[in-house]
Hints:
With 312 residues, the chain is an alpha+beta fold. It contains eleven helices and twelve strands.
Amino acid sequence: MILQKHYLQPxxxxxxSTMAEKNKExxxxxxxxxxxxxxxxxxxENAACLIDLSKIEALKGIAQTGNFxxxxxxxxxxxxxxxxxxxxxxxxxxxxxLSVGSPLIRLSATIGGNVLCENRCLYYNxxxxxxxxxxxxxxxxxDICIATQGKNAxxxxxxxxxxxxxxxxxxQLTYSTREGTHxxxxxxxxxxxxxxxxNLEKNAIVQALLxxxxxxxxxxxxxxxxxxxxxxTSLTCCMSADENDQLRIVLSGVDPxxxxxxxxxxxxxxxxxxxxxxxxxxxxxxxxxxxYRREMIRVYISRGYKKLKNAL
Length: 312
């Protein structure tokens, strides 16, 4: 039975889990609200109960913990980007955080919310009356992908900018459920299914992101969008190379999940670029065309190679 109180604000993780259990038929966790509330106003989110995690102190803080830098899930992007530990050790994450939205949005948006932001599509992220007029798609209980006219897969895109940066740094994610606390590689939470883009349980509460500090990286970041102060990404490219030239290329905005390509900085770049382009299931559901975004994958990775090579 759904409680009649539609907005709840727990002070602890256990309290939040209890509230989620009592409202399990229809609830949504929120933090900064910059994604959930917009989707709710557009009719893309219809949870009857919102559970606001913003007062839970245990989900905050940035500190060295053992061999990891722990970033609490509720850390605001604006604060995170200016943190001395992140600026010094993991500047690519600071760049990614500063690329999200506008300064006002970054004062509210959290790192946990950004890695969990809902996949987007030109045909889905519209007002309810617009979607009804054009026809409902697979992501909103329709029977066809409007972008591809196919019936088997939704290609709404992961648009997180911080997720590629964190994955390039081999970050892990810690989350809790009623069954306990779990830690796993961040990239493993993404399914590649646009309708259900993450494999976390509905009652999972992300506690922190953990970045290993036993390696140093040279990094590269680039983002394609129409307006720098507002738009979601059409392509985000993050690259890292460690002391042994082990290379990670991570893309978002061109697939329902992060595109991850690994190799060595001394490998033939054309081979890895071709692999990245082929791995990106890009479709025409963005303001930029599929062809152009795929061309820009090649451009960005080529630039990244040059930067990382010159940093030796």
